[in-house]
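Q: Mind making up any chain with structure tokens?
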Amino acid sequence: MKFAFGTSLKNIKRKPFRSFMMVLLVVILSFVLFMGAYIVMGLRNGLSSYRLRLGADIIVTPTSANGHGNVDDILLQGISGNYYISSKDIEKIKNTSGIAEVTTQFFLTSAKASCCSSRVQIIGFDPKTDFSVIPWMREEYSGELGIGEVIVGSNINVPEDGIITFYGQKYNIVGQLAETGTGLDSAVYTNMDTIRRMADDASHLLEIDPFKGVNINTAASAVLLRVEDGYEINDVADDINIHITKVKATSSKNMVSRISENLGNVSYVILLLVIGIWILSLVILITVFTMISNERRKEFAIYRIMGASKKILVEIMGCEAFVLCSIGSISGLVIAFFVSMVSTEALKEALALPALAPGAFAILMLMAGTFIVAVGAGLITSLLSAGRITKGETGLLLKGDS
């Protein structure tokens, strides 16, 4: 094996262009396999996170929110806007049959002006009744949000002094939430008292009233509901949509199902592309190794005359393939890793689907699996080609006959 390995290295150096093309082919193989699996894993992680963060069985938003996109768009892409449900309609929603828990959220979009650090969606929640934000917040922050305090999503840049400004007032950032892969990562969260103060400041600072006469002390942008056992979620949502005007109730199960369907379609397309590229690459690999083996018939015959066994010839080809495929696979994985680090956010925006990068362990396992498959494919194709060539007699090899 030592002789075979040393000889293979000399052969690789002797034919740099041929070696480079082999490495390039395996780079493409590894890159495509890793990125395909990475994208699918990221989308599935995003869906799981999205399902977990919803918390509610039903989300009720005003019909005026439709101008900003449906509730999926608002949560997935962080589409901002100011829209509100009146206190009268909130009471009607609470009195709907089958409701077990109710909590409200108040949305406020900060202005892109000197009065605010940045234009983001600010979400106010009621700590006394909330079952959506609090469990998520507890993963990173164990305290209670006081007046003038906020906690921000993972995509928000936290200043060194921990201060963020909205409508001329400074607020203390007490923590940063874990990434979800959705538009929730680009939002700022606070309690109802603080956000209503922000809303009051906005109404005084802005020339145009963003609330259009709505009572900011009693209104809400979204009502989150949990349904009692024994009631069908879709039936309760339909009841709200039929009997309460100017609001739209959406089942979280329907939202997740729609996203799952879209994710399934995207995953199917990615799978087809990966399979297609892999089949094409494997055909090219087999063709290339066969051509290389045919070109090296006389070289093999000389080795045989010098006393090398057929086994050694196969080992030489195998070592060459292993070295070249290893270099190509590692190079492809390095490129794919750096591309994946900057592609998750772009992927989420392009597909309008939640995307959450896999963890370090999952990425390492994916890299190991990709390496094994890519190198294995190269080894198998090279050994098959080498085995076919070395079946011939030495004399025939020297003549170049089959």
User: Anything to note?
Assistant: Residues 86-245 form one domain.
